[in-house]
Amino acid sequence: MTTASGEWAARPTRLLWGWAADAAIFVYTVIFGSLAVVCTLLTRKPWPVDYFSLIWSRWILKACGIHVDVEGLEHVEPRKSYIIISNHLSNFDIFVTFAALPLRVHFVAKKELLKLPFFGQALALSDHIVIDRSHPDDAVARINARVAQQIDDGFCILFYAEGTRSPDGQVHAFKKGGVTLAIRTGLPIVPMSVSGTRKFLPKGRVIIRPGGRVRLVLDKPIETTGWTLERRDELNELVRSTVVKNFVEDY
Fold it and tell me: pTM to 2 decimals?
């Protein structure tokens, strides 16, 4: 059986490509992060971060030789608001989502990401929701306030419901924050399944393994009207089972 290190030693071209892809991501983050910050300060609007996030993500996918197969776009309307609940395999999930979905997608980010150079500054000026996970009540209030402000403006919030990247490529238990917010706001839930991103950058790895395909599936929106907080466990399991149904482990 060939070990991972042996495979890379036998394929030096891919190893060099992986290093080059790492360098490209750094350079693109500096360039587009800086542009997003400058344009946001000049316009005093958050839209430059959304605009440059799209370009940033697409350039990264191109540099890494990643092609995205998208299914289910007919289930969503670009100007409608949704709660998107997804599994989480890799940091590439974010690039794939920004690049492939015709929606204003924003995510709930931990405040530690603000410390990252260029990316953190752009994040701070964006419409993404930055929270302190050590104060869950304040975090919930911040999320609810942001959704209330923009609920009628095609504002979608993405939840990686497992809370962290999968360590083994499986879909694990879902936390209930996404379905709770959906019930409280009445927004429909779009179950999203990401397959294939883990092979490019598994959790704990630094060098990218470039070249390959990713599958992104949007299932039909689940309307939350009529659901109560007492039934959120049931709704959470319905969403998770839908995500699992469309997930392909070895994609």
Answer: 0.84
